[in-house]
Design goal:
heterodimer, A: alpha/beta, TIM Barrel, 2 domains, 13 strands, about 40% helix, B: alpha/beta, two-stranded antiparallel ribbon
């Protein structure tokens, strides 16, 4: 099997990554912004309906069970994502609904059940972005003195996934008899305990929710560390990733597709979606002015603290008008945001940036690719990455929301359609159908022995 | 006619209905129980009748059999979907202190309270179930004392999390770029016997401050826990006398703890078979019991008794010693076992009769009669020091909820016992409960020690 990024008729997948008043850290300060957006259901309903009107594959909510930073200069949290997805399911009909949830700080029975519920409530539109949660601050909310090591977190994540898949498969699709006369509602042989006993979990099962409409929710992964890539190659059907350059994107793309093949999977069933933060103007000058307006609203202290967290250094070690110290740039691995830290260091070294300049580059998308330009210029970048083995689609991250998404839909999506790169209408009803992925067979059912993995 | 004190009425949701054989009724909604619109339609009916709330019981395990469905969507997301189609109706979900992490559960309920505009309630349970224990790495359920000790610590932690942002913590000043006043966001730094949680929470205080605290479970440990923490109590009583004794005990315990007894509502369950004549109502009750599968009821009863009952003859009287010394309403280790033991002792039923008594409401009060008779019973309990309202458990949804709302509720309204319009918009307002001040505010610190009014 080979990857098919040159197949004629191949189309982009677009995911709307939603985040309060926008991905730019200071977007909430724009005159147009709603500073209360992070806890306002109405804001998210507007965004979801907007993305659905443009036939996006899905929307996505990032998450962590922690107050991110102190909240002094930006909201430190948002609505809990699975409840929010459920509310958005009721306000939309077709768009996929993806939320992040942690395998380190949840129990598999509770989380498998909640995602199964969301998949039922949305009629097959749920997706789970599987994360292992990187910070000390999260660990401290769950009784741990320090966070578990990177390798331990991924080991637990793999077992968590095995348990979740077993629980979703614990009901056969045809369990239902509905025989009122004989008093037999269901066939008990079609519901089975899973009796999982492993290193991290003992779970008897079965689940108390029928198998989800999609079989499993769409399995998504973000995190490009070595363990993250290994995990993604085995489980992920869609991958969110941050790259600053086409070369980095190509190398990741080729690596992941090859790993998927090595794991016995069809590489087309691993959809790779780098983030893009489009800052759009009708002229290049207008776009630059908009980027500048956002940049002027940044409070350096906020970015500095966030950077210190990702690089795992004391904030005092970051000098605004100096480059990153060699002790930082030469460190080879970290226990937390390993891949994101490497991306930032590579960017800083490659372009010889001072800390102040780094903060400017990260303000829009925390390391995701910020593209400032006209609609044509944005399309050019997307097309280039799509056709040259860097992407199967994009995680579209409005710098300000809703305006960033509105402009993208009004000005970029029509150009993509004119080139035949993006759907005019939904063809499927489930999230798996939007991404061209099959409904997985049940691992316990004989006919399903040749399952997806 | 008008009474100043009004009944509180909840609709207790349960797939096709509370009667264990309801699914076999020719008009049951058996084919819709995995369809979210089924629950949404029922909730809208409850709201049209101005009921206080809908309620979902829950446990993280599959409790079904071939003879009865037990599909249970995760309840907090289910209520979020109901929030989207209702405006005033309270939304109460059960969640276990034994099988959740407080930070995660705090987020789910805070999100529901925010999304619903202040309508969330939490039925706090410790989950007495070996099946649930085995889904969370345990061999069986932990002793009462341990579960309730953890529950108290859990409630203290979750309260601190919900209170950790003072009500006026969010500044969101675009000009200065200050989002929160960090002096008003508090780490909770809890380190106890079962839980260690640093905090702070990652969301502002919710519309109700905290969801309404509900408790169900009337054992000795349960009653003490309820008197200390609960603002509403769901309970099962077969006789007016037991209900009165329970009511007086709870109110006096609450007063003894320095709480205002009016802020602890006692809401027994009632499962009414309603028809135009007394005979028709009795026939309806008998018809539902004729649909039961004895093997199912026996299995349920064995779980309560804790011993095998297979040797008993369906048409012989149940030996009283089967339930040993189950105690009385004010002295027991397991309240539901005590309820069943008292039926056996008092009424000396055959096994078949006992199974029929329990088929409708698992020990809750099942009544049959004309609308006036049902209203009379409700009024008698309400005015006789036995109840502040009821958890209404229709044997068959939606038909017997309709009978209640269309025929019984108007009588209660005519008698001035129940509202004709909502006067508030939060669940606390429906129940006549105050919005608690944050324990971290100067008001909360003093209010917490002297709630007595």
């Amino acid at each position: 099997m080979t990857t098919n990024h040159t197949t004629p008729g191949r189309r982009l997948h677009l995911n709307a990554f939603l985040m309060e008043a926008g991905h730019h850290e200071a977007a909430w300060r724009l005159p147009e912004a709603d500073p209360g957006a992070s806890f306002d259901l109405g804001h998210y309903v507007r965004l979801a309906q907007l993305a659905e009107s443009a036939k996006f594959d899905s929307l996505f909510l990032a998450d962590g069970p922690v107050a991110q930073g102190t909240g002094e200069f930006r909201t430190p949290g948002q609505l809990e994502p699975l409840t929010l997805l459920t509310a958005l399911a009721g306000a939309t009909e077709r768009i996929g609904l993806i939320a992040t949830a942690s395998t380190t700080y949840n129990d598999p029975y509770n989380l498998a059940r909640t995602f199964a519920s969301v998949d039922h409530v949305s009629n097959g539109r749920a997706g789970w972005n599987i994360v292992t949660s990187a910070t000390e601050q999260e660990a401290a909310n769950f009784g741990l003195a320090g966070r578990p090591l990177h390798a331990t977190r991924y080991e637990r994540a793999e077992e968590f996934l095995d348990v979740a898949l077993k629980l979703w498969d614990s009901w056969s699709d045809d369990h239902f008899l509905g025989d009122k006369v004989a008093g037999r509602w269901g066939d008990p042989t079609e519901l089975r305990p899973i009796d999982h006993v492993g290193t991290h979990f003992r779970v008897a099962g079965p689940l108390n929710v029928p198998r989800p409409p999609q079989g499993y929710p769409l399995l998504v992964q973000a995190g490009a560390s070595e363990e993250g890539k290994r995990f993604a190659a085995r489980y992920a059907e869609a991958i969110f990733v941050a790259h600053q350059t086409l070369e980095a994107a190509q190398s990741f793309y080729a690596d992941l597709k090859a790993r998927a093949v090595a794991a016995g999977r069809d590489p087309d069933q691993v959809v790779i979606l780098p983030g893009i933060v489009p800052i759009i103007g009708s002229t290049e000058r207008e776009a630059i002015a908009l980027a500048q307006q956002l940049d002027d609203l940044r409070i350096p202290e906020f970015g500095l603290r966030a950077l210190a967290t990702v690089l795992e250094v004391p904030v005092e070690d970051l000098i605004l008008d100096a480059p990153l110290a060699p002790a930082i740039t030469q460190r080879t691995s970290r226990e937390g945001f390993d891949s994101r830290a490497n991306l930032i260091i590579e960017l800083a070294v490659r372009e010889q940036l001072t800390v102040r300049q780094i903060l400017g580059r990260l303000g829009g998308g925390r390391g995701h690719n910020v593209v400032v330009g006209t609609p044509e210029q944005i399309v050019e970048v997307m097309e280039c990455w799509f056709h040259h083995g860097g992407a199967d689609g994009f995680n579209v991250m409005g710098a300000a929301l809703p305006s960033g998404l509105e402009t993208f839909i009004e000005q970029v999506v029509p150009l993509l359609r004119a080139k035949g790169l993006f759907r005019e209408e939904y063809e499927g009803r489930t999230l798996r159908e939007h991404y061209g992925l099959p409904r997985p067979a049940n691992q316990y059912v004989r006919d399903g022995a040749a399952g997806v993995r | 006619m008008s009474h100043s004190r009004k009944l509180s009425l909840n609709a207790f949701l349960h797939d096709t209905g509370h009667h264990e054989a309801s699914w076999r009724h020719p008009d049951s909604g058996l084919d819709r129980i995995d369809d979210i619109t089924w629950y949404q339609e029922i909730a809208r009916k409850a709201e049209a009748a101005k009921l206080d709330a809908v309620f979902l019981a829950d446990g993280p395990a599959w409790y079904g059999s071939a003879h009865r469905p037990s599909n249970q969507f995760e309840p907090i997301t289910l209520l979020t979907a109901i929030a989207a189609v209702t405006d005033k109706l309270g939304l109460i979900s059960t969640a276990s202190t034994s099988y959740y992490e407080p930070y995660n559960l705090a987020r789910l309920f805070a999100s529901l309270d925010r999304i619903s505009g202040g309508r969330a309630g939490w039925n706090i349970v410790t989950t007495y179930s070996d099946d649930a224990a085995r889904n969370f790495g345990q061999d069986g359920v932990l002793p009462n004392e341990t579960r309730y000790e953890r529950a108290q610590e859990f409630v203290d932690v979750i309260t601190a999390l919900w209170d950790s942002w003072e009500d006026d913590a969010v500044v969101a000043d675009r000009e200065s770029g200050v989002y929160v006043d960090t002096a008003k966001v508090h780490r909770i730094d809890h380190a106890g016997k079962y839980l260690k949680v640093r905090g702070p929470f990652n969301a502002p205080r919710t519309p109700q401050g905290r969801p309404v605290y509900v408790q169900a479970g009337s054992s000795n440990d349960g009653r003490l826990f309820a008197a200390r923490n609960a603002e509403a109590i769901f309970t099962a009583h077969q006789t007016l006398g037991d209900a009165q004794a329970f009511y007086a005990d709870i109110k006096s315990k609450a007063r003894g703890l320095g709480r205002n007894p009016d802020h602890v509502l006692v809401l027994p369950g009632i499962s009414p078979f309603i028809a135009d004549t007394e005979k028709e109502a009795k026939d309806l009750y008998d018809y539902f019991n004729s649909l039961t599968v004895p093997a199912f009821g026996l299995g349920q009863l064995e779980k309560v008794a804790g011993v095998s009952l297979r040797h008993l003859d369906l048409d012989e009287k149940v030996p009283a010693e089967i339930f040993g010394s189950a105690g009385n309403v004010l002295d027991n280790d397991r309240s539901r076992k005590q309820v069943v033991a008292n039926i056996v002792e008092r009424d000396q039923p055959t096994l078949r009769e006992l199974l029929h008594r329990l088929a409708g409401g698992r020990g809750h009060n099942v009544v049959h009669g004309t609308p006036t008779q049902i209203a009379d019973t409700i009024q008698e309990w309400f005015e006789g020091g036995a109840a502040d309202g009821f958890n209404v458990m229709p044997p068959l949804y939606p038909q017997l909820l309709d009978a209640f709302t269309e025929k019984v509720v108007p009588i209660l309204q005519d008698r001035g016992l129940f509202r004709t319009e909502y006067t508030g918009s939060t669940l606390r307002e429906h129940y006549g409960l105050p919005r608690p001040a944050s324990i971290y505010s100067s008001d909360g610190a003093s209010a917490n020690t002297a709630e007595t009014a």
